[in-house]
Amino acid sequence: MLLLLWENRPFLMHKLKYTGINEAGNWVRSLTQESHKAKEFSYCPYSMSCYVENTCFSLGLCAERTAINKAMSEGYQKFKVILCSDLEDRVIAPCGACRQVMREFGDMPVFMTKVDGSYTTMTLEELLPLAWGTEYLKK
Amino acid sequence: MLLLLWENRPFLMHKLKYTGINEAGNWVRSLTQESHKAKEFSYCPYSMSCYVENTCFSLGLCAERTAINKAMSEGYQKFKVILCSDLEDRVIAPCGACRQVMREFGDMPVFMTKVDGSYTTMTLEELLPLAWGTEYLKK
Amino acid sequence: MLLLLWENRPFLMHKLKYTGINEAGNWVRSLTQESHKAKEFSYCPYSMSCYVENTCFSLGLCAERTAINKAMSEGYQKFKVILCSDLEDRVIAPCGACRQVMREFGDMPVFMTKVDGSYTTMTLEELLPLAWGTEYLKK
Amino acid sequence: MLLLLWENRPFLMHKLKYTGINEAGNWVRSLTQESHKAKEFSYCPYSMSCYVENTCFSLGLCAERTAINKAMSEGYQKFKVILCSDLEDRVIAPCGACRQVMREFGDMPVFMTKVDGSYTTMTLEELLPLAWGTEYLKK
After folding, report:
1. Three-class HEC string of chain C
2. Which chains have 3 or more CB–CB distances shorter than 8 Å to chain B?
3. Where residue D99 sits, what CATH number does that domain have?
């Protein structure tokens, strides 16, 4: 079982048991607490818009894609839930490029949490309707 | 007045008068006909998934972003309507990264046309709800 | 015959006759003058690091790649010379990602000009030695 | 002390002692052996050109950038040496975009190894001369 957590430090939760949507409040709270500890690892000398920035801005990478690429490089290719936490009192949804990368792994619920642990949830299908997918590749 | 057209050749329509959603059928038909003439300009030796491909795949670029970057390099920064035409009997919506780039210019209707000129329309807000935007940049 | 010019407005020169390296001084001077007229078209509300920027920084695009993608969308796939002009008293070379995209089209001389029209020249092979290329794609 | 290893699985070496260029043969051999064990983690259903691919090709990411982003997300921002191993009898150098991302961290030696452990070495400055850097950002 794997959860992605980011906005601060992208990381992977193996220990947390995913007990289904109905008990979301519990594990969202745990994850949000973890995420608040981990802010110091981002590298954003320029803008604070990207998780990993670069002098050549187009080579930076959002936290969400950093988390997913990292998970894949460790052998994980199945995700049940994605959680985006923000350290302020607002809901932040992933950018369009990150939604596209997430969608590679199918539809799943995305939790977007505020600093107080309250959250909004939408499915990837709702966040990226009519998603471009492998079925469109001309072979 | 500017329309973007792609899936084949990204280009810019200056002459066509945008007469509003109610008369969409007319100008969608004109645009779709134009787009079918222009397929030969894409550079896709590898996969046909991207409009401008590169040996290093992550440096390729979709037709939609090629069209928008091209328009901007010619001084256009306001778009009223976006049209994605496909040469087959299906509706193709832009990828998430392209939706994000379009959203930079505000909300607008996106027309997605099939080879026969029939079309589906959604707003950018519907295609990318809760879009990440400039209001989130930490200053 | 095609020349790419940028740092300001990426554009394409059809009229200028490329008379060889030995007469570079002449056409570099013409191109540099043209480029100084065209600065107003870039879209960089955030950083001035990219030619076409986006709220999601990783979706921005350098001037060099904008110019090449634009040329390709108009049907050009062969380039004899690339020229990067800077409006200040310094030489600017393209970023690594842009060098990779240029290298897709083979080796060629790259002229890097200062505001006064003086220039440095290197080949793409010198700017990106041991370049990753199509010969490495596993088929 | 940190070494990046890829072409297969990007990963981070903490245990290996970097004993300087003069003893490169020893730790290059160790790293190359490690890298051969780890090929199964790449996600390349489409082309095998990228380490982490996506249906939308421009959203894929090379192994080198995956490794660097992963290291940064774990808090590492200083690298002494970079090693690119290939599983075949050839030397592969990083693409231009990856060289640019590496260059963010200064100059350093890059080792490029063949399947038999023999290697070529160049500095980043040699692989990306006149590199675009933070000194060019207009503030």
Report:
1. CCEEEECCCCEEECCCCCCCHHHHHHHHHHHHHHHHCCHHHCECCCCCCCCECCCCHHHCECHHHHHHHHHHHCCCCCCCEEEEECCCCCCCCCCHHHHHHHHCCCCCEEEEECCCCCEEEEEHHHHCCCCCCHHHCCC
2. A, C, D
3. 3.40.140.10
Domain count of the fold of chain D: 1
CB within 8 Å: A75 and D41: yes
The answer to whether residue D128 scores a pLDDT higher than 80 is: yes
Picking from A67, A112, A121, A110, the residue whose alpha carbon sits closest to that of residue A90 is: A112
Q: What is the pTM of this model?
A: 0.79
| Residue A67 near chain D (CB below 8 Å) | yes
**Pick the catalytic residue: D7, D40, D53, D64?**
D64
pLDDT of residue B128: 95
Taking residues D79-107, report their average pLDDT: 82
Tokens linked to C86 = 């800077």
Tell me the two tokens of residue B11.
């280009």
Q: Do B47 and D50 touch (CB under 8 A)?
A: no
Residues in chain D: 139
- Looking at this predicted complex, what is its ipTM? 0.77
| D94 at C interface, C-beta within 8 A | yes
Specify whether C64 is catalytic.
yes
- Give me the domain span that covers residue D20: 3-136
